[in-house]
Design brief:
The protein is mainly α and 183 residues long. Helix content is 78%, strand content 0%. The chain has 7 helices and no strands. α1 packs across α2 and α3 crosses α5. The longest helix has 71 residues. The radius of gyration is 31 Å and the shape is elongated. The N and C termini lie far apart (80 Å).
Length: 183
């Protein structure tokens, strides 16, 4: 009997060792699978981001092409012209051009090519132009229709504050006027 007990004990120890080794192997396989799944999910996220950026670039090209046609052909401009009709046609064409620049800056920012501070600095420079300021004021009704929570509306409010800061500044050093928002 004693011999049987020792053998059974050895088998139980061996079985326990195999069980522990199998559990460790199973855990390692699960961890590798989890890591592989996490990497795959990250790859899909990056692909989605690339597609989104490509779509934004395409949209920007389309916007520019359509605006160029409107600038070149006043009959086409009438299709999208929502500016006050008391504004001379030549000035409205300039507004279309100003809009193209603004939209370009906005999309460059959205694509992550410039951060908020760089966008702010570029806009501060553009708003030195009286025509650009006129455009911004003439387009106020268009911005009013934006979803308040959208990125475009937030940037619009940032620009409104910038214009106000520029108007209230008591310095000719426009490049130091205003503080970019931190939000």
């Amino acid at each position: 009997m004693v011999t049987r007990k020792k053998i059974t004990g050895r088998f139980n120890s061996a079985a326990a060792g195999i069980l522990v080794a199998t559990a460790g192997l199973t855990l390692a396989v699960r961890q590798r699978r989890t890591e592989k799944d996490r990497l795959h999910a990250r790859q899909l996220e990056l692909e989605e981001l690339a597609i989104r950026r490509e779509s934004l670039a395409h949209q920007q090209r389309m916007h520019w092409e359509l605006l160029t046609r409107a600038i070149d052909d006043p009959s086409l401009a009438e299709v999208i012209d929502t500016y006050d009709k008391d504004i001379p046609a030549e000035r409205r064409r300039q507004f279309f051009y100003a809009n193209a620049w603004y939209v370009n800056l906005y999309h460059v920012h959205r694509a992550g090519l410039v951060d908020r501070d760089e966008l702010y600095a570029a806009l501060r420079e553009f708003f030195q132009s009286p025509i650009f300021r006129e455009y911004w004021e003439a387009a106020r009704h268009m911005r009013a229709s934006l979803d308040e929570t959208s990125e475009e509306a937030r940037v619009g409010r940032m620009v409104d504050r910038l214009v106000q800061d520029l108007d209230e500044a008591d310095t000719d050093e426009w490049w130091v006027v205003g503080t970019p928002p931190t939000d």
